[in-house]
Design a protein that fits this description.
Blueprint: H1 3-15, H2 21-27, E1 39-42, H3 47-50, H4 54-61, E2 70-76, E3 79-84, H5 86-100, E4 114-119, H6 133-148, E5 152-157, H7 164-176, H8 179-184, H9 186-201, H10 206-219, H11 223-247, E6 253-254, H12 264-273, E7 277-280, E8 283-286, E9 296-299, H13 307-322, E10 326-329, H14 336-348, E11 357-359, E12 365-367, E13 370-371, H15 382-400, H16 407-424, E14 432-433, H17 436-439, H18 447-463, H19 478-488, H20 490-500, H21 504-523, H22 533-553
Parallel strand pairs: 4-5, 4-10, 5-6, 10-11, 12-14
Antiparallel strand pairs: 1-3, 2-3, 7-8, 8-9, 12-13
Length: about 550
Amino acid sequence: MDLKKLAAEHIYSKLADQLTFEEVLGLVEIPKITEHGDIAFPCFTFAKTMKKAPVVIASELAPTLAGDIFDNVQAVGPYVNFFFKKTYLANEVVHKVLTEKSHFGDLKIGNGRNITIDWSSPNIAKPFSLGHLRSTVIGNSIALIANKCDYKAIKINHLGDWGTQFGKLIVAYKKWGSEEAIKENPIPELLKLYVEFHEQAEQDDDLNQQGRDWFKRLENGDVEATRLWSWFREESLKSFNKIYDLLGMSAEYNQGESFYNDKLSEITDILDNSGLLEFDNGAQVVRLDEYNLPLALIRKSDGASLYITRDLATAIYRKQNFNFAKSIYAVGNEQTLHFNQLKGVLRKLGFDWAEEMIHTPFGLVKQNGKKLSTRKGKIVLLEEVLNESIKLAEKAIFEKNPNLDNKDEVAKQVGVGAVIFHDLKGDRMNEIDFNLENMLKFEGETGPYIQYTNARTNSILRKANFVETNDVITLDDQWSFEVVKSIADFPRIVERALEKYEPSVISRYLIDLSQSFNSYYGHVRILEEDAGLQSRLSLLKATSIVLTEGLRLLGIQAPKEM
């Protein structure tokens, strides 16, 4: 139940001869201060046509806008402030949530259309580092939000499994590698070779040329290059799947850059036939002057492909095979220029659907204020982070509830959830500094705080042997009303998160709802045996439903005991 829409419908019924519904809805506000009402309607718009001061207009309009769903409608300065009838709203909202359960907040926006999401995309032959967490959890949450809004989200793990770096890795392996060592400890050994190559290449630039030559052999199907590359890829996928299992996430498709290798000549032909390809110092380029962008390098002078060549093939393949309504790229902010160039080339080819390709950038993960770098060996392994978080969560849970039966399962839910929530709680464009101890606190703006709030509601419901009924909800106190208003806002929050492709909209909402509930819990004797007991318990059940669903949209589980 969207309170803004509910109020706008009422106001429009009174002012239909002066404003459209969309105009009314656009004017309606939710005041930040409770004393200013639940809804505020500014009257500045009428000043010109009515030739009166907004303060006067508000005082004249207020009596005409009263209604059965409001306790009070009053003019305050240039605003008409509306106070909902608490018992009416509580009854409507709580019963709606109890009826719809996890489907509360579902929206019919996508009409079943496809959204493809470029998701996770770690690089093979390297550890799954903390740096790849952001693409994974942001892309996963956007997919879940899109599904709730009636899109069919298709996550595609666009693995970094192609490019010059694999030529360099082959060089490093042939010079310094050991087959036995890699078989025994694949990813750490491959990382060691990768770091060794870049250290040696700083002294011997010829190594870089050798790397380019080996990648060209790989592109041309050389047997030895292909054998080594396939081996590196297979070992990496085994490692990655352990991480995805811990996170409880997966993709519908694992289609890395290599998947599009046999489609690259088609891209070059399309560009050539359209007259867009030009030669620049032996390389093939497309000029993007009309978009104020640097030229797009399509093929190097040695004929090797680049990221943009492969991404052009990717975009066209996805449109042809998935007919996406939107194509989301959850990729770091540093790739913004690349995606602008990609869309620019597609526009010049006449593909109007390029406008539905949306880059959802995000800031870096840092540790102690410093950027992580695989090339220099400065990495934090995500598997180690998750396991350490689970271990710390288990310790904290044991201190709070030593008799908990399924503490291992709950520790995993809390430990993993803490890491995910920390990543998603702020605007995705913000850089995040990694601090495991802070993110595992059971108070403050953390995942465990929200999970614990949900567990608290369930504990009370179990103690009371709660059974749902159709009894009228009679809540009329201000503490419960703040919870009711927050719950009612959930569908609007979901819609806003989709519009912005911003999981933090959900995260901030869950923090606010948890704080409202804990204020209610601190001021109201919930289990007191009186006529209002069933209503209070029903509110707790509705709160738990929304907290659980909100956490699910972030990719986080909601244990019922902690």
